[in-house]
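REQUEST FORM: STRUCTURE PREDICTION
Request ID: SP-0412
Submitted by: Lab K.M.
Chain count: 1
Length (residues): 181
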Amino acid sequence: MITETLNIGRRIRILRMQQNRTQQEIADVCEFSKSLLSKIERGSVVPPVATLVKIANALGTKVSSLVEDTDTAGTVYAANDEIEKNFIRTGIGYSIFPFATDHKEKKMQPFLFVGRRGEVKEHHVFHEGEEFIYVIAGEMKFHVGNIEYTLKEGDGLYFNALEKHGFKPVSETVKYLNIFV
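STATUS: Completed
RESULT:
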């Protein structure tokens, strides 16, 4: 888990330096502090996915290029035991597993999110693109703009990610698939 955090930060730093851009330039485009970007690049902070999307956009790339290691372009299989061992905990308190990290140039980025009641901090994020959410287990409150939805197992939600959004677990644990396009 820590290794993956460092790899994401390292990839961001490499891309930024290849473009001869400063941390301040990227932070300004993303509308957050240089200090936060520095912590992300060092691997001391795991940003929420929305922050990764903003960084990827600022660097002119896809979020998948920040979380991927290899150049595989075919079918990618993720076994349940691999998924369970490779969750990345974010600074907001939920954990993510990015699917298909070995598949470059994909048109969507699927993530598995797991949040536990009392651990997920209140958050309101926004970024370019669209999202689709499908609840696998548990119950959560999910807000998009000024509307709050109660989502339970089997419920889905599709929305424009430019609207502020975020979630809060209602059940002890909520697990959902989130696909970014």
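NOTES: The CA atoms of residues 142 and 167 lie 4 Å apart.
Reviewed by: T.R.
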